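dumping this here so i dont lose it
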């Protein structure tokens, strides 16, 4: 199971980087409030799930767009998340992936396995990348193809953040 989650997280980073590269190349994208707020949401939820699967050192507080001086700062934060997630995921044993963790931010907190939490984080990001792709098209841009199968066909390349 860990190898599958490793692939899922590697794809998530690759897809995030592909979107960031296209957004940076299209001037209207990173000036668009809706797209930028959704980028913050994507990356904050990624961090929330990283915090959720542990190890937890303190409480988690969601940031907002206004908490980032520039979009480049958000991108740096996103890169940091992916590097940390890869390291943390690599350290989990199969048994630890099945351990139950708590998602406290729901109105009715829920308990799920680390494995399911990590899968949800990747699927949540994928969902919102689709929304951002639609928004980019509305702004006159061309979104990248970032489906998992495209990543596989390309030989599972690492993320290219620049």
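and the seq i came up w/
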């Amino acid at each position: 199971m860990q190898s599958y989650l490793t692939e899922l997280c590697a794809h998530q980073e690759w897809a995030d980087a592909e979107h960031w590269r296209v957004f940076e190349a299209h001037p209207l994208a990173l000036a668009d409030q809706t797209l930028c707020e959704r980028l913050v949401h994507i990356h904050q939820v990624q961090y929330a799930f990283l915090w959720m699967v542990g190890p937890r050192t303190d409480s988690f507080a969601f940031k907002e767009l206004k908490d980032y001086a520039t979009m480049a700062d958000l991108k740096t934060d996103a890169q940091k998340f992916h590097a940390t997630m890869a390291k943390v995921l690599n350290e989990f044993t199969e048994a630890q992936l099945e351990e139950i963790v708590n998602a406290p931010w729901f109105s009715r907190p829920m308990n799920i396995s680390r494995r399911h939490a990590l899968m949800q984080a990747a699927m949540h990001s994928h969902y919102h990348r689709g929304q951002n792709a639609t928004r980019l098209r509305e702004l006159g841009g061309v979104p990248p193809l970032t489906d998992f199968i495209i990543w596989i066909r390309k030989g599972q390349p690492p993320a290219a953040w620049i």
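The chain has a mean pLDDT of 94.
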